[in-house]
Specification:
There is one protein chain. This protein is mostly helical and 424 residues long. It has helices at residues 18-57, 61-86, 88-108, 112-140, 146-163, 166-175, 177-198, 212-223, 230-258, 265-288, 295-315, 323-337, 342-348, 356-382, 389-411, 419-422, and strands at residues 8-9, 13-14, 202-203. It has one domain (15-415): Growth Hormone, Chain: A. It has a three-stranded mixed sheet with strand order 1-2-3, with no helix packed on it. Strand 1 and strand 2 form a beta hairpin. Helix 1 (18-57) packs across helix 9 (230-258) and helix 6 (166-175) packs across helix 7.
Length: 424
């Protein structure tokens, strides 16, 4: 049967059967998924181009990286309110357009302040991708799709992170970092236009039930969740903060400064994303199909493995001049760091569909506050070039402590027991 989009009816809804509704949902999901690829791409890009930027315009790599996370975190609650008020279509179009302008400002900036303002606009624009996508998922897809779709989303995001390693380095080598950001401006603007043309608000027969004030009331419900919310928020705050210190900011600088890997450094860094893609996709799919019975247990052991990797990185800092050793460590870093993505599903299961965007946005707020604070702190400790191994050692030890505290927080989280978990 050939699929033909159903006619639009007043109010921005689509008149369609259940089957065609799901097909159109996949179209919208694919567009936002493409945009989410660039959310992670921009998030990780400082690790590759950051040194080139600060060499030309001045500044500090840690601060340049933290700008993205502070802005992204600050946008989480406003973005959720805007999506509830205006819908995913309008919000995605406007904010992706803002991100396109930010890419242009970054490409043309001749001072650190100008580049930083461009990064602020990129981050603000990219913040309006995940929450609108969660809104589309909660409205257009059956509830049992959520763990698989969330796993796909974060896995594709990490493909974007992977693209921000070797492929980005190749593009920058060919075009320079300024023309690279000009190209990103064009791609982002195309995605904004596709969102405006193809995204729809609601299927026929459904009405908007929440507005901005509704989200504020919803946040009170989520924040009052006790062990249903706060241990997950704290754990992901700590885990993601430490991930972004290494993967998103200093991995390339560290290996280039203290190890003699020459042109192989970027390949080692790419192993971080490969490991993370595998664990996020696998854990999301296995959880959705009921093979992983307990998300909390999977996150506990995954985060324990992540803490063990940080311990090895700290103990062997500046030592072991082996590409194979550090390639394996980087892959394990990404692999074990990916299990915390299950926290979104664990938190969401405690709340009704009407609070899907709110609960995800609330958790996302703490994820990016963690990245903001950790990258800012690491920038202060590590400082500017020339870099000292002692400052990296202090930072790595602090990140190990973060990961240990995250394991404890996961242990004290409360998981909703499903029927399949009660079966012997």
């Amino acid at each position: 049967m050939i699929f033909r989009p159903s006619p639009i009816i007043p109010g921005g809804t689509l008149d369609m059967t259940k089957n065609s509704k799901l097909k159109y949902a996949w179209v919208m999901f694919a567009i936002l998924l493409a945009a989410y690829f660039f959310v992670y791409f921009h998030r990780i890009s400082v690790a590759v181009v950051g040194q080139d930027i600060v060499d030309e315009v001045g500044g500090n790599i840690g601060y340049l990286s933290s700008i993205y996370f502070w802005t992204y975190a600050a946008m989480q609650i406003p973005c959720g309110m805007l999506v509830d008020r205006f819908g995913p279509r309008k919000v995605s179009f406007v904010f992706l357009s803002i991100a396109a302008i930010g890419s242009w400002m970054t490409a043309t900036g001749d001072t650190f302040t100008a580049v930083a303002m461009g990064k602020v606009m990129i981050a603000a624009g990219m913040a309006a991708v995940y929450i609108p996508m969660m809104k589309v998922v909660s409205i257009w897809f059956p509830p049992h799709y959520f763990p698989q779709l969330n796993g796909i989303i974060i896995a594709i995001g990490n493909v974007g992170a992977l693209a921000a390693t070797v492929p980005l380095q190749m593009v920058v080598n060919a075009l320079g970092w300024r023309d690279t950001f000009m190209a990103l401006m064009v791609v982002t603007l195309i995605l904004a236009i596709l969102c405006f043309i193809l995204l729809k608000e609601l299927p026929a027969g459904e009405t908007k039930t929440k507005d901005g004030m509704g989200m504020l009331l919803g946040l009170k419900t989520v924040f009052a969740g006790g062990r249903k919310f706060w241990p997950m928020a704290i754990a992901y705050f700590l885990v993601y903060g430490s991930i972004m210190v290494f993967q998103g900011t200093y991995a390339k600088v560290y290996f280039n400064t203290f190890h003699s890997f020459a042109g192989l450094t970027i390949w080692i860094v790419s192993m971080l994303s490969i490991g993370k893609i595998f664990s996020i996709a696998a854990s999301g799919i296995l959880s959705g199909r009921g093979i992983i019975k307990s998300k909390r247990t999977a996150m506990f052991w995954g985060t324990a493995g992540y803490a063990a990797v940080w311990l090895i990185m700290w103990l062997f800092i500046g030592e072991v001049q082996s590409v194979l050793f550090w390639g394996i460590i980087s892959a394990l870093f990404g692999f074990f760091g990916g299990f915390m993505s299950l926290s979104f599903a664990q938190v969401k299961e405690w709340h009704p569909t009407s609070l899907a965007a709110t609960s995800v946005g609330a958790l996302n707020l703490f994820v990016f506050l963690g990245a903001s604070m950790a990258t800012t702190l690491s920038g202060h400790i590590i400082g500017e070039a020339p870099y000292a191994i002692g400052n990296f050692s202090i930072t790595w030890g602090l990140m190990f402590l973060f990961s240990v505290l995250a394991v404890i927080a996961v242990y004290f989280s409360k998981e909703k027991i499903t029927a399949s978990q009660q079966q012997p």
